[in-house]
Amino acid sequence: MQQVNKSILLFKVLFIVCITFSFAQEKELSKADKKFESYAFIDAQKIYLRLAKGGYESAELFQKLGDSYYFNGKYEDSAQWFEKLVEKYPETLTPEYLFRYAQSLKGIKEYEKSDKIMSDFRKLKGGDSRAELFAEEPDYLEEISYSDSEYEVENLRRTNSRLSDFGPMFYKDRIIFSSARDTGTTKKYIHTWNNEPFLDFYQAPIDIETGELGKVEKFGGSINSKYHESSPSFTADGNTMYFTRNNFSQGVKRTDKNGTVRLKIFKSTKKGDSWSTPVELPFNDDDYSVSHPALSVDNKQLYFSSDMPGTTGFSDIWVVDILGDNEYSTPKNLGPIINTEGRENFPYVSKKGNLYFSSDGRPGLGGLDIYVVATKKNGDFAYVINLGEPINSPQDDFAFIVDEYTNTGYFSTNRYFGMGSDDIFRFTRTPKEIPVCESLITGTVRDKETKFPIPTATVSILDLEGNLLQKTEVNEKGEYTLNPICGEEILIRADEPEYYSAEELVTAPADGGPMVVDLYLEPRITRINEGDDLAKLLDLKPIYFDFDRFNIRPDAEEELTKVLAVMESNPTLVVEIRSHTDSRGNDAYNLSLSDKRARSTADWIVSRGIEPTRISGKGFGETELINDCGNGSDCTEEQHQLNRRSEFIVISF
């Protein structure tokens, strides 16, 4: 689950928090802990990183930093912090942190090291199903590899966005899925777990011939709220829908005793061309999550994931019988053949009645892996099977659906080289023929704005799983040469640290002939131009002063620090501060007060080391109103507020 990009990153600004006294460090840590406990992992992570960069160390800090990455599927980063925890604070280690460290190491393919940590985990927590399963399957990688060639997968790059896209489900002749993509609305609600917008339902038609998805459109109408909706499941007639939503109903958001908004399953029925107001299922609760509904073939049972009382681990797979209209049996845990002390979620029942689900509690390739349940003749569960590569990867793989009659389907993953934080992949079971010749692809990597070559770029070939096939550096003219397999559909990707990556989906010439693919990279840093207002570029909050005063308040210092950082990073930048008031009060007095405030603001920046020739202040009083709220006008407080502003105009650069 990722990131709202309000605008292109304007500047690379490093804020170094110098924490002198231990009580200040503890205060910062306490602030981060509160965000962490409410699952605001991104906000907490920023504070933890600031503390770590300032030299602060503790077992708790390393635990929380590791967790903030671990629970967002960033295993390379979580491994780094868990390693510090193991090395520096071994006496604080609990079995759970050893398990998370082992899982993180799998995420970066350090399987041998991961196995050693799992052995330590088993010594500390014998009897834990995760430890016993590891001991029972010492050669799990070899066993998983037996199915390597069974599947072919491809990233649906024409469907996926740069943000989270996951949880596909068949519905008539289309796929319904969840996405955090930009909806075009003016107001975006950001989820602090992963710093992305909240999820809504979208739909895309399925091309019967190719399995590709067509134009993406919103789905569900009023079912979509300002919070998360995901994991839909539909009855066979297509007229009833179960889905996951944050604990939000009839305009009211509810939390558990710790202030956390949990997940619930809702039900909606189709009336004509629209869906009814969703109704939450009666076994939901404010104090635990109920999510990821999946209907049985006969629509008489509903499987789901939950951490309700009776759960073995962090979340288990449960089932209820559907007895009538919003009547259900008592939830039943599927038991130890399915559930572990880890995370089991995203159940799915295929048309042939096979139960698929995701888990991180079993020996696997890393993160969440996808499994299918083998059953006995009487229908009882026998054991579970890891689907292996390429369905599974070292990262999180989940939300698997399949049409076993056509051997095609879709699943979700956050594996590297994807479009966004989670992507939807398509798969088939048709073996892939390997071409026997190499083709020639050449091109030039250029700056998208200036069209100048970028001599420091690298260019890679990736297959549609995101696996790296070839990589090369460009020459001083930005030129590259690669030799992919003939006739293979591949991604040509260019990277450079100061630019956003660019890629092209191409098919290498089948006859081995040449192909030219030029790539244009967009700069990560927006160039500053004369006349720009830094207040707008940096999205500064208003610079407030106490009534009838011009001294710099602490809350204003926080915003001015951003301007200071930009001027320090750009030593030729010259800025004029322009202070404005509204029309209320004496004209001459407003002009004098605004001038004092502008000069006071400039003096504050100069006192932090900026040359006086680079910063100046000037007051304009009420002479440059941006609306019709002049003297004697009948304007609201909000309209007057628009005129009370500070501008930081770039004079030269």
Q: Structural class of the helix and strand makeup?
A: alpha+beta
Task: Estimate the strand proportion.
Answer: 25-35%
Give me the Rg, rounded: 28 Å
CATH H-level superfamily of the largest domain: TolB, C-terminal domain
pLDDT averaged over residues: 83
Note down, in words, how this protein is organized:
This protein has twelve helices and 38 strands. The chain is an alpha+beta fold. A hairpin with a 2-residue loop joins β2 and β3. The longest helix is centred in the last third of the chain and has 20 residues. It comes from Leeuwenhoekiella polynyae. This is Outer membrane protein OmpA-like peptidoglycan-associated protein. Keywords: Cell outer membrane, Membrane, TPR repeat.
Helix and strand layout, with pairings?
Layout: H1 22-37, H2 41-53, H3 59-70, H4 75-88, H5 95-107, H6 111-124, H7 129-136, H8 140-145, E1 152-155, E2 165-171, E3 174-179, E4 190-191, E5 196-197, E6 200-205, E7 217-218, E8 229-234, E9 240-246, E10 248-249, E11 252-253, E12 263-271, E13 274-275, E14 279-280, E15 290-295, E16 301-306, E17 316-324, E18 327-328, E19 332-333, E20 344-349, E21 355-359, E22 369-375, E23 381-386, E24 397-403, E25 408-413, E26 423-428, E27 440-447, E28 458-462, E29 468-473, E30 479-482, E31 489-495, E32 499-500, E33 502-507, E34 514-516, E35 519-523, H9 534-537, H10 554-569, E36 574-580, H11 587-606, E37 615-621, H12 637-643, E38 646-652
Parallel strand pairs: 27-34, 27-35, 36-37
Antiparallel strand pairs: 1-26, 2-3, 3-6, 4-5, 6-7, 8-9, 9-12, 10-11, 12-13, 12-14, 15-16, 16-17, 17-18, 17-19, 20-21, 21-22, 22-23, 24-25, 25-26, 27-30, 28-29, 28-31, 31-33, 32-35, 36-38
Helix pairs in contact: 1-2, 2-3, 3-4, 4-5, 5-6, 6-7
